[in-house]
Every structure is written in C-alpha cells, then in structure tokens.
Request: fold
Amino acid sequence: MRPHRGTLILVLGILGLFVCAPLGIAAWIMGNGDLKQMDGGIMDPSGRSSTNAGRICGIITTVFILLGVVIGIALLALGVIGAAASR
Reply:
C-alpha cells in the first residue's frame, strides 16, 4: 500500500484558507484522488480523516474564491452602470 498524504493535504487546505487560495484548490483535487485510492485499497486508509478535512478546507476555499469573483464582477458592473448613468 502507498502511504497516505493526509497531513500534506490538511496543511494545503489550511494554507489555502488563510494564506494562498490556490493551495485550497490543490488540496481539494489531491484529497479527492487520495480518497478514491483509499477506497480502492491502493493507499493506506489511516489518514482518511485528515485527508477529508483538508479536502473540505479546499472546498471552502474554492467557494470563497468563486464568491469573490462573482462579487468583484458585480461591483465592476455596478461601477460601469453608475459611470454611464452619470453622463
């Protein structure tokens, strides 16, 4: 069996939340892959809880990124509309 990367995925997920958002996306992708390998019996399942926690942190980070993009686009659109209306 391959060793688990639960600690790495958890650290990436936490860093994604607080330091560098793209690390959260990496944690989500790596966590999904590792959980599939654990389910298939290829990877050591003892790190399942930390892998899942890191994956969840990655999902939360990705949602925050998407919300930030949507809010940014909405503010930009409001600015353009406001500028056009003030002419």
Notes: The chain has one domain: 6-85.
